Amino acid sequence: MPDRRPVMLHNFMLAAREAGYTMRQYREDSEIAAKCHIQFAEKYGVDGILFDVDTALTAGAIGVKVDFPEDEPARTHEAFLTSLDEIDSLAEIDISTNPRIQHSVESIKILKRYFGDELFIRGNCDQAPFSLACCIRTPADFMIDLMIDEERSIQLLEYTTKICKQYIRLMADAGSDMVSNGDSPAGPSMISPEMYEQFALPYEKEMLDEAHKKGVPYLLHICGNTDLILDRMASIGLDAVELDYKTDVQAIHTHFSTSTTLFGTVDPSGVLALGTPKSVEEETEKILRIYKNSPYLVIGAGCAIPPMAPEENIRALIRVAQQKPNKER
Has this prediction a pTM greater than 0.70? Predict the structure, then answer.
């Protein structure tokens, strides 16, 4: 058991806002991006940094069209392949030459040079293979693909897996203490547990294995209510999971509390951004009570914190997590 619960926040938008930079400045200058996280970490006394940029890095690196709003994260908005018949046209790409990938790698290097081993640095590697396939085809089209052309859908997933593995290696080599992927389109809000097991889980396992080859732990993030797939997620031996407030914390505890570290699961919008310090304290206390006998917990938000989250709410979460030894809870 740790002497107190560590805190790591999914806070890149909030960190940029508090430091006085737009998302465009954050995503285009690695010195600025690192500075935002350094200032936030030193201001609030968190135990680790989750470095993230947006959910369009790997997609953009392989040619998917990306929009770049001035003060919002970048996003994809149209299909790169209009049909699975075009899969053979996908080129083998070295994403390390992409300026946006280089930006995230360099930001990790700056953070590691600054903090050394003082803080735990998690390098987020954007989309997992299933999610990246959704970016290439759009989520709606890829859901149909899975139903009518399983063979070519798997071919696309094998392609995206190669891309995602590259990013895992790059972020590990840059000095990340942990790497992670997001795979939210693979959750029960979009596909059945059976489809998740067939079309997403095997490729998530490949990401886990790739991270372990590089000697770093691996975290998987899925938004929404993941109650129906927790057993399947637990089956591949993940080092950590970052799950949404919509997932039952008691169910998470049942499946993961003796083997896999939970990052979360305070509601980033309804509680951290729009709630009160009291509601933040109550939600944080609830998670701590459920996990009182397990060391496998890092307190934070279950997803990205909106940039308008008030300082007093962030401080409330940290205060509750850090003020008492675990044995007193």
Answer: yes
